[in-house]
């Protein structure tokens, strides 16, 4: 009997380096560098990381006022780990981390609606602006 490699969930960036944040943002035309990605996570209100063998294999982050509301802008799992329950585990833990708040919102593609509905979330509307030239998060000079 073979077992899949185990992973653990972490709620801090303690000991996590940019080098452990490789392989995310698949198909993004202008993805953030691992250093920028580390800064994104460090600036989050809450973060949950799935780690296996010292490598981050998935993450979810939340930004919040810490009083009433939070927004979950990013949830990603490395392609080779998708379909194994990692995303569900990350979101379940994040929902627990944010249970003290009135509202937790996120936006997603239509094909992901059933995933989030399965976690008890409801469909709503989202308005957005995207500046794809800024997608990498690079600082303008």
UniProtKB/TrEMBL annotation:
It is an enzyme of class 2 (transferase). Keywords: Acyltransferase, Transferase. Residues 1-141 form the N-acetyltransferase domain. It comes from the Bacteria. One of its GO terms (molecular function) is acyltransferase activity. The keyword Metal-binding does not apply. Its EC number is 2.3.1.-. SUPFAM superfamilies: Acyl-CoA N-acyltransferases (Nat) (SSF55729). CDD domains: NAT_SF (cd04301). The keyword Acyltransferase applies. This is GNAT family N-acetyltransferase. The lineage of its organism: Bacteria, Thermotogati, Deinococcota, Deinococci, Deinococcales.
